[in-house]
Structure formats: C-alpha cells, structure tokens
Amino acid sequence: MRIGGIIRSRWLGLVVSWSVIVAVIATGCEPAPGLSSWKELRPAAVGLSDGRLAVFRTNTAGRLDYRVQETPMVGATGYRSDVWLGTQVIDAGPGPAGTPSVTLTADNTVEVVATGMDGVMYSLRQTALDNALPVSSFGDWQAMPALAGGVTFAGSPTIANIDGDALRDVVVLGSDGNFRVSSQISGTTAYGPWTTRYGAGQLLSGSPATVRRTENNTSELVFRATDGSLRFTSFSLTTQTWAGAWSSYAGSWTGSPALFTTASNRLTVAGPAPSNQLAIQQLAPTGTAANVAAKVNGSPSSATVGGTPYVFTIRDDGRFQFAPVDNTGTPSSWYVIDQPGVPVPQSPPDGSAVYAAGLVTVTAADAVGAVSYTHLRAHETPEHLVCRLLLEKKK
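Request: output the structure for the sequence above.
Response:
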C-alpha cells in the first residue's frame, strides 16, 4: 500500500538506522486503520477565541489528535504564525473511524464530533475554555442518537450552528441519500433525535460543509455529488426552514469541499480537483472560474480568525499544511506544520521552495499536472525512502 498512490521525496543514501525507521512510523507514513490513503482523511480546523488556530485529525493509531498555534494570528491579512505546539493525543474513549468535525461553541469551548469504529457517532467537549488548549481539557465521549429505520451513516459529520440559536447542530449524510440533522438539547450537552431532511436522488456523497451568510441571513450547506459536481441548499434564519431544493454547480471535484466567506463576504468553496490540485471558487455574488491554487492531498477544511479564512489539508506525509485566502479567493503562501527550521531549496518535494521555517511559497510547479513517479523518486528524502520500503514490503 502506497500513500496517496505515490511517494514524493529525494534519494539520500542507502544506510538508514532503526531510529529513523521508528521516527518515520511515529510521524505517520500510514493513514488510520481501514483507510487506504491520507487522501481519505480531512483535517478539522477551528479558530479559537484568542486568535489562534487549532487543527484536529484521526491519526495513524486511529485516535484523535490535534495541534494548536503557540501565538495568536496578528492582523487580518498580515503575519501568520508558523510555530505550532506539540501534538496532543486523546487516547481515551472510542477510536474515530473517519474524519472529525470541530467547532467553537457559544461559551468558548471546543466541541468535536466523529463516528466511532463501532458505528456510533460521538461528541466530545472541553471541560475548560478554549484558551486552555493545548492542555487536553476534554471530558468523556458522549454517544449521540442512532439513525432509525436501518439507515447508517454514509459520511463523516459536520458540526455547526445552523439555525442561529446558539445550540450546536450536527449534519450527516444517511445511507438512503438524505441528509439528517441532530440538534443539541437546550440546557444539556446531549443531542436530540435525527431529523430526516432531503437529498435522495441528488447523488450526495462524503462530508457536508456549512457556513453562515449574513447578507441574506441563511446558512449554506454543500455536498459533493458522485458525478463530481457540487450540490448546495440553504436554511433560512428568518423563516427557520430549509429550502427543500438544491442548486447544482458543475465541476470535477474529487472529494468533499470546504465552505467559507472571505473578509468581503464572498461565498467561497475549496475542494480537491484532479491531479491532487486544490480548486478555490467564489460563488457569490457571482461565480468565477475556479482558481487552481496548489497541489494538495485529500479534502480541505477551513477556519477563520481575525477576519481571514484559512484552508487546511493533510499532505501525503501526514503533515498539515494551511494557507490564508484573500478576498479574491486566492491563497497566499502555504505553511507546513513541522517544516524544518533551516530553509532548503527543494522541501517539501512538491515543486515549491521554502524560504523560511514552515513557509512554503507556491510556485508555478504547484499548479501543473501530475509529475511522473520516476521524477518524484529522484527527490526522495531518507525518511520517505524508509517509509516507501516499509510499505512496499507489506504489499
């Protein structure tokens, strides 16, 4: 089994110590159990009340882990901190089976939802305020209601505040093609029964994304369809009703999208496109051509701090990368968490150049088609060499 179909790195030497092998395994050269590629994982990012970013994922051991910035972001479009604190792992409770979703609640605590390997959906909430992170100030996993009528969860959930009442809502796709919503019960941390909405016949797949649009007082919801297009519907905060219909946007999206608004209130969608590219397209007030931003792996998520949205993805090597997005839907420099502190000309091996610790400047090479495996093998690092050899040995 190979990561994402290819291993991208640099040949350096033939003798590798066992310490390097252990380091590679510890940093993750395989996806979570049951997943064939990092491309099937999606990060879950959230902006904290103190201006920092945090990002969660299901790790290689099938546990939830997360990273938090050491210092807050500064300025709406200026400095981005590339210093991230060490990985925190939540070992207790059920192991997530797929991608988690995370939100900042009305009382400034972080809450996570994820489907467990037992098929049950769970929520996990902080017992302290969000600015206590990275301390693992989380309580116990709490089981959410099961779906009725023999329907199973057909994708990972998304947690948000859709109806504007300060209580959380969880949205998930059911195996019958309809999406469902479960809302927090007032005065408790528990969730009520799932309400079946609509979607059958729309070819919905994967995980939904949602965002609030203030200019028309709606919450927008988007799914990727199996034909590569996107399906949008909305919830009116004025009438407190769902639209009941879908708008379709043609495209060749290859995974679940992220949805956000820019500082100028433009509705923007980001998602994986062919050849491991990230496409970012603005949809409101008028649609624009998709901007192919960079080579990425898997589906993105987004988080906003200081008025600036940030798009996160998980790389082939399991590291997070993220970039701020401006009012035109264009990302600036990509940051890679745990990038080596010494600038090197060809790291990470995706054709971009590193000019500062953690900072990856997008180059023309990032926006071209797929590069041959032979070429990529010519830029293999010793860690990825070990990773590839270990994976090929298991085949």
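Confidence is low (pLDDT under 50) at residues 1-39, 75-79, 341-395.
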